[in-house]
Amino acid sequence: MSITIYHNPRCSKSRKTLEIIVESGIEPRIVEYLMMPPEAETTLHLASLLHVPVANLLRRGEAEFKDATDLPDLDDNEALAAWIVAHPRVLERPIVVNEAINKAIIGRPPENVLEILHK
User: Fold this and answer.
1) Quick one: average pLDDT of 99-112?
2) Which end of the chain is more exposed for a tag (fewer CB within 10 A), N or C?
3) Domains plus CATH for the chain?
4) Do the bridges between strand 3-7 and strand 103-106 make them parallel or antiparallel, or are there none, so unpaired?
5) pTM of the model
6) Alpha carbons 52 and 48: distance in angstroms, whole number
């Protein structure tokens, strides 16, 4: 099974989601997205797998979002995905992808990840 987690090790929800994955006997591919932000195309793909617009992947409570002066139109998926590359802190976390079933989930709450494990 191929599982990828877009992970922030400083986030308790992300750490707990990773713990659930590992305790399920799966060694996921871990992408620390603050150090290696996903490319715009990857963010568009994640939104597609989640069946949401890119705007739904934004952490609107983050200061970087609230203080942004270069934020594109929230209805422009491509521009927002490109903007996230430069501002990865605003990306919702954790996002877990099960490539085998072509599905993703946001680990909030962390137990959400159980929906896509072992399928």
Assistant:
1) 96
2) C
3) 3-116 (3.40.30.10)
4) unpaired
5) 0.94
6) 6
